[in-house]
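Researcher: Please predict.
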Amino acid sequence: MIRKKLASSLLAATGLALCGMVHAQQHNTLTAQEKAQGWQLLFDGQSLAGWHSYLAKAPGKDWKVSDGAILMEKRPDDPAADFQDLVTDAQFGNFDLKLSWKMSPCADSGVMFYVHEAPKYQNTYETGPEMQIADLACTKPDSRVLKERSGDLFDLISSDVEWVNEAGQWNNFEIIADHGHVQFFQNGHKVIDTQLWTDDWKRLVAKSKFTAWPDFATFREGHISLQGTEDKGEVPIRLWFRDIKIRKL
């Protein structure tokens, strides 16, 4: 009888554990607690609703949905319009953004915010600061250059430690922007903590390549962007994004 009770307890515990695993694998969903906290999905896991390519009305042809993730897959001879950076239809000011990504070997990308969409700006990076995405070691030259490694505030501030997984593995990003206070987290580790729009910030920008674009990082709300226009990586270049959610602050 004791053995039967022990076996039943073990089976029950195993069942609970399996239920927890199944629940944890439900990507692109929000828990009841997250909904109560004000989180909203930016990707429903099935379509590109709520997204379009920069300065276009719809996503380019190289952007699609595959196995519950946004997939960007391109080849060198694809027209530029097909892989133009993806941006949200909506704009955001103070926010907490979370997402997961992975890449094919040696690829390069980024997540931008405060992107202003207007014909006078030909590229997302002319206005939007970027949390860099790069492979652990083989994205040349980015993985080997400070301020251009994964998790860095691109070309402006480098993280102390590169908390990024190798190509083919999922990584978690979080960007918090609250009245100019910007924090980046990569796989649960804080990698950037800075303040926009101060005199120190303006001096930092002035020493970077972004000084060529006077409106860079000056807007206080804008679109979220997933970069598809970089040409680094093994062909075909592939990037995946999922579990994209945001909470207004």
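Model: The two ends are 56 Å apart (CA to CA).
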